[in-house]
Amino acid sequence: MSAFSELRRSALNAVLSVVVALLLAPSAHAQNDPLPSWNDTAPKAAILSFVEKVTKQGSPEFVPEPERIAVFDNDGTLWVEQPMYTQLAFALDRVKTLAPQHPEWKDVQPFKAALEGDIKTLAASGEKGLLEIILVTHTGMTTSEFEKVVTDWLSTARDPKFKRPYTELVYQPMVELLSYLRANGFKTIIVSGGGVEFVRPWAEKVYGVPPEQVIGSSIKTQFKMQDDTPTLYRLPEINFIDDKAGKPVGINQEIGRRPIAAFGNSDGDLEMLQWTTMAGAPARLGMLVHHTDTEREYAYDRDTEFGRLDKALDAAPIAGWTVIDMKADWKQIFKD
């Protein structure tokens, strides 16, 4: 074989190797896409544009890392909230567990409705009825004991529709968003209307958010020595409601900085988005998750007892908030 033929053969093999490598390798877009579960629609573009503006040195909207605070509602924003809030499902199971010690509950509302699984009557009891159940089922124990009760329940409880643990029913696109923001110097903080000590035991494992970056509703606790051991005992008294107008108050108390990005899904997040975005420079981002996917999750907004999106939906175009259409903007809902 001539030297020319050998050179030609080597060149051909090299070209074939490159072609095969290109065919087998993932695309550069797929490799570099920080939000692979998002479709290439307006919400994804808004997120990428916002992050670029606030992190690029020399940008007129550059924000130093200590000021890059992003706040997230939990129920309906990071994980499922239908057919009821997960913490309410936990409380109802606790009512059934404790019922033998309270035979009077079978005739007293809202406990009667809880025992019978009558969600319509339970919802009609309003905030007062739900708080009554929470106070009975979440107190009378130490904080450590409560954490164990929550952790044990989450390890065995299953969502009625998807038959999966609740901690698997977190939205994959939002988990990617949390990671993307942290990779760009953001501190990601959960601001939940649910109980802070209900969310903290599992938030770091599921979301990558440590306990000290979870803000939520709380009950009063009292320091006690039990068998020479210092404990915090959970009392049947409300300490703080971290919902609606309470969210900006909680953010200010716990963080001491105004966020530059806020993500919610309901009217309970309205004031949090207002507090975050209606503050002028630097760049601000407000987003609402709109549940529109009956096949992969649920479709609801104005007409629901849990996660009502009404006033905030009307406010979005006026305030310049981006509405995430779950059906149109997310390639997948949950991690496979």
From TrEMBL:
Residues 1-30 form the signal peptide. Transmembrane segments: none annotated. Keywords: Hydrolase, Magnesium, Metal-binding, Signal. It holds the Pfam family HAD. GO terms for molecular function: hydrolase activity; metal ion binding. InterPro entries: HAD-like_SerB, HAD-like_sf, HAD_sf. PANTHER family: PHOSPHATASE RV3661-RELATED, PHOSPHOSERINE PHOSPHATASE. This is Putative exported acid phosphatase. It comes from Rhizobium mesoamericanum STM3625.
